[in-house]
Amino acid sequence: MLRDTHHRIHNYLRISLTDACNFRCFYCMPNEEVEVTPTGKLMSKEEIFGFAKIFVSLGVTKIRLTGGEPLVRKDIAEIIEMLASLPVKLTITTNGVLLHKHIDTLKKANIQSINVSLDTLNPNKFFVLTKRDQFQQVKDNIDLLLENEFSVKVNVVVLKGINETEINAFVAWTKQHPIHVRFIEFMPFTSNQWKSEKVFTYQQILQTIALEYEYIKIKDDLNDTTKKYKVLNHTGTFAIISTMTAPFCNTCNRLRLTADGKMKNCLFSKTETDLLRLYRNGEDVIQAIKENVLLKEKALGGQLLTDFSQIETTQLENRSMISIGG
Length: 326
Hints:
Strand order of the largest sheet: 9-10-11-8-7-6-5-4-3-12-13-14
Helix content: 25-40%
Number of strands: 14
Distance between the termini: 24 Å
CATH topology: TIM Barrel
Radius of gyration: 19 Å
Number of helices: 10
CATH class: Alpha Beta
CATH architecture: Alpha-Beta Barrel
Strand content: 15-25%
């Protein structure tokens, strides 16, 4: 069991499979010609499986595959098949554009819940945000997931001046479809053009929805990052991830493994442990994992503890979002 000094038990591991992506969303990977990690410095499928087995032996019961875009890995089907043999709940976060090519693999692995990142329902705005003309493919693939009875969560990073006017369009989508829309406050990372003025807050999101809908609060699970709601008579639900204005660190159970094998105990942690180097050298990985967990700060990596409007991104010690893993 992995317990930190604040008595939180960690049983959820997020594994980034790659820092490559076929989209170019500015808040994650803004540069078209960004340098990705060379293959030799990435975890191989055997190393991913080896780490997963170690974490499972230490009490991890849920693994989420992230990126970059995890489905761009050529060996993604093999990775999923290997991890599906472990006694864990296996899930994945994706931009959705390649899902139609992997539906059978996901079903065979008994993956039941998939998170799809989609920040707009407007095809033109989608192109502006992602620099890719792939809106319809993503939308069609979400419909394909629903047809195949997957639980679908749609992740929407809300950016003031860009897509906050679409909040109620996303809520309207939940009326006839069992979609779970999750509105995410814009968070600061290295080189993601974060400004406090772009943050559309938890309360502003609720106020916007209240202009058109009557909703109720529904029960959150113990380790949820979301605050969940449901519009009366809607099939689906919506939720808010309020990292900037109402963080949820007290019940955090998450650990992260980057695509190059570094362990982070928090999305905003300054420190990371090079597990891949230890693993390749035959050194004690388990002790390194335990020590990393004990270094976990009480909240937000110890870095974002002031009013978000006072945050100075040049003072943050972290990676870009694309190199951490979504």
